Amino acid sequence: MGILEEVNASYEKLSPVQKRIADFIFKYPDQVCFYSLKELSETLGVTEVTILRFTKKIGVQSFVEMKNRLREHLQTRMVHGDGLNRIADYVGGIRFGDHDKEEMFQEFVANEKNVIAKTFEQVSLKDILSAVAIIRQSRTIYVAGSELVTGLCAYTTRRLLTLGLEAIDLANLSRALYNNYLAHATPEDCVIIFSAPGYAKHIVNTARYLDKKKIPQIAITDQRTSPIASYGTTVFTCNNHDLFFYNSVMGYMSVANALIYFTAMDNPEETNKRRGRLSEVRSAIGSIDFVKEGL
Q: 199-240 pLDDT, tens per residue?
């Protein structure tokens, strides 16, 4: 049995923190096999002892042995390739031909509804309004995230701009621009941070930096033990269960929509004034057209 199959077989017996370690290994086996114990500990925001206990729990004698077996997995994958069914086996998914398609569709719909329901069991109106107050009081709203949530960062930024707010999408910028914007951020600004399991190191470092600089941050992540959660001024935890992949961003998207909606409705008159100014600029400047043909 391969190392990922062994982790999968032990998954239900793991503690919540150990499941987070397992999720990270499932998603990034090709990275974990080159991490030191300290690097993995810092990336996940857990102690080195916790990781060592995890290795014992999945039946591996040491962290070094786990890394070696992940390297073997990587070598095998490079030689033979990853078939869709093999990936599904690793994440505990169901192969496409195993169920009637109608049954699979209903299962998918039920899961999507459940993700939203489970997410909002953890989200209170008080927290939403607290985050809205931070957004409304901020000079500039920065939005940060990595990999899986970069599209969500772009979406959230665009919606905030449509409300007439000053918002900047950090997730889709070069690292040089990313660093430059944060160097000019002050406590008068705020940062909305999306962080899914995998917990990109630079995002965790960003949260730590913002905390040091006393810049308000709205953390949207999967659980209270997430590495960025302890730094959040306001923290939202989202259900991220998916039937096939390791993470779903459905819950994150819904929380973002709630923040945008209540930001707009917190002061409708002010929102309309801001949107009016945008319309004035749009009318004055016009669309992207050329003054003369051929230019």
A: 888 999 999 999 999 999 999 999 888 899 999 999 999 998
Q: Which of 101, 120, 134, 4 is nearest to 59 (CA)?
A: 4
List, for residues 19-68, the tens digit of each pLDDT value. 999 988 988 887 888 888 988 998 888 899 999 999 999 999 999 999 88
Compute the residue count for the chain: 295
Helix ranges restricted to H, the chain: 3-10, 16-27, 29-32, 37-44, 48-57, 63-80, 84-91, 101-121, 125-137, 150-162, 175-183, 201-212, 250-266, 268-285
Q: Which residues contact 158 (CB under 8 A, 6 or more apart)?
A: 169
CA dist., res. 267 & res. 28, Å (int):
43
| Sign of torsion over alpha carbons 139, 270, 193, 225 | positive
Phi, psi (rounded to 5 degrees) for 53 = -65, -35
Residue 86 has pLDDT above 60, yes or no: no
Radius of gyration of the chain (CA): 22
Helix residue ranges per DSSP H, 58-200: 63-80, 84-91, 101-121, 125-137, 150-162, 175-183
Round to whole Å and give the CA distance between 236 and 161.
22
Closest Cα to residue 92, out of 20, 29, 161, 10?
Answer: 10
97: which 2 tokens?
A: 């031909």
pTM for the model stands at: 0.67
pLDDT class of 246 with cuts at 50, 70, 90: low
What span, in angstroms and rounded, lies between the C-alpha atoms of 2 and 128?
44
Instruction: Tell me which residue of 207, 254, 243, 213 sits closest to 227, measured CA to CA.
Output: 207
pLDDT, one tens digit per residue, over 141-165 is: 999 998 889 999 999 999 999 999 9
Tokens of 154: 């772009």
Say if residues 33 and 71 touch (Cβ distance below 8 Å): yes
